[in-house]
Structure formats: C-alpha cells, structure tokens
Please model this.
Amino acid sequence: MSAFNAIDTDREIEQEEFTPEIEPQATWCPGCGDFGVLKALKGAATELGLDPEEILLVTGIGCSGKLSSYFESYGFHSIHGRSLPVARAAKLANPELTVLAAGGDGDGYGIGGNHFMHTARENHDMTYIVFNNEIFGLTKGQTSPTSPKGHKSKTQPQGSAKDPLRPLSMSLSAGASYVARTAAVNPNQAKEILVEAIQHDGFSHVDFLTQCPTWNKDAKQYVPYIDIQQNDEYDFDVTERREAAEAMYETESALWEGKVLTGRYYQEDGRRTYHEEKMQQDSMPESPIAEQYFDDDHEWKRSYDLLDAHR
Ligand SMILES: Cc1ncc(C[n+]2csc(CCOP(=O)(O)OP(=O)(O)O)c2C)c(N)n1
Ligand code: SF4
Ligand SMILES: [Mg+2]
Model:
C-alpha cells in the first residue's frame, strides 16, 4: 500500500483502465502521431504496474494538451507553456505521486521554454513528454521553434529564416538527468523509453516526434527511423555527457536533413532531485504538504509568520 493514500498497489492493472470507454474519445485527426503517445504511455504505465490514481498528468495547450483528457489518471489541463510549474508544485506537495507533464513543441520549447530550462536545472523528479510535430498544430500549422529553416507556413510564407532550436542539446545543457528522443511510428521503443523515463529518479525529458498529417504535410512521417542503440555507427556511452552532447547535436542536425535518429542520449544517476536537496537543507516538512490538508489539527503557518522568521 502507498504510504500516502489507500491505493492497493498489488492489484493487477489492465492497460484498458487508462483509456476507459467513456467520453471524450480522442478527437485527434486520423494518422496523428499523438495517438502514438497515448498508446506508449498506456503501455508504460501498465508495465510499471501503476494505478491510474497514482499518476498526475499535467498538460499544456495544443493538440498535445488534450492528452490529459484521454488518459485516465489525475489530470490538470493547464495553460499554454505552464504545465511544468504546476507539475513541480504538485510533486513537491505530494512526492509519492508519479508526475508526468506533457505538451507540444510550441508549448514547451517556445512559450514555456523558460520553465523547461529551470525545471531541468533543478532536477525535479518527473517525466516531461514533448510532442514534437515541428509546428503549432492546434492553431492550424504556424511555424514553431522546431520548424526547420525554410519551412513555409501561414506565418512564414517565404519560409522560416530561423535555425530551429536543438531540444536535446538544450535539455542536456540546462541540466536534465535523462534525455531521449522517440517517435510515434516506433511504438515499442516509445514504450520502453517512457518506462525508463518514469523510473528514472530526476528530471526526464522525452522529445517525442509526432507527425501532423493535417498541417505539416511536407514533414516526413518520421520513417524510416534509426534506433541509435541498435546501430553500431552510433556507439556511445549515455552516461558520458560529452559523448551524449555530440550524439544529440548529430541527431538534431540529421532531422533537418530528413534523417530520423531516435533513442536514449543521456542518463545521470545518483544526482539529488530538487525535493531531496530541500530535505537535505531541512527546508521541507517531514510529512508531505498534501497530507496536512487531511489533518484537522494541523496548524498552518501564514505567510506573514514566515516573514517574521526572516526579520
Ligand atoms: C498565452 C497563449 N498564447 C497563445 C495561445 C494560442 N495557442 C494555443 S495552442 C498554440 C500552439 C500549440 O502548438 P504546440 O505547443 O506545438 O502544440 P500542438 O498543437 O502542435 O500539439 C497556441 C499558439 C494560447 N492558448 N495561449
Ligand atoms: S492538427 Fe495535427 S497535431 Fe493536431 S490532431 Fe490534427 S494531425 Fe494531430
Ligand atoms: Mg506542435
């Protein structure tokens, strides 16, 4: 049993429990890569023996943001680019929750880029899935931070004049302790990577290539793809930061040329999470803040009391 609530964690979980046959049914377009994320996440959660009630999924705004409506768990459909601060607060208040955050490339690498950078730096223990379709899908195909240079859209009819952002390299330099890229067209690898990412203690970032056949027709469907762990040409040590950085750089450049590389890039074990750092400093309460809400005798500190302590 979980220490926090009365969930029977020994119960056998069926994959279908994560997508019960109730409204709303997913409204993504036929062929959309977002279905692949839902499938992989369902498979990963089942393989990890997680109960829907042990998971919180926080999403941003976009086609990707609908994931929290279709995946059965605790969910929070937040605002554009703000899934990570919500997820961080929830994880700190209730550390036993498995916290997932998800959103699009526009959501996470554009408007929410600052939150991404600092959540990685602080090594919050959660998994961040970025649906990377290289455009703004929900708002009808505008250029996003990952759109390739020259990509034409309604906002950039002459073609984008910008070099795209490098999400894996950015994540590594910001401080993420697990970094991977997978694709909706590779469901087995996607599930395995999500299992690893969720199991990892620290901030896991999964850049998930999700094709948008409706608004990004000139983009590849991310096939054929190469799994770098299955290919001798890409032999490197994922625990070595410099080797990982080189592999990431090559992978990002290759995608712009239409070559799809996927796999695990970086894994750093043993680094303290933000919560652990705060416990170490003695600046977190012993029992989870979330539990205090159920304790009628708990004496809440007011913010002005805390101010007094600093005078
Ligand atoms: C503050 C704010 N600015 C702009 C929007 C409009 N908007 C909604 S979704 C979106 C982009 C979504 O693109 P992405 O994050 O890549 O998600 P996708 O739809 O491709 O999954 C934008 C600009 C908004 N909802 N809120
Ligand atoms: S617009 Fe694109 S990203 Fe959105 S549901 Fe349709 S195919 Fe998927
Ligand atoms: Mg997008």
Notes: The chain has one domain: 15-310. The beta strands are 55-59, 74-77, 98-104, 126-132, 135-136, 142-143, 178-183, 203-209, 225-227, 260-267.
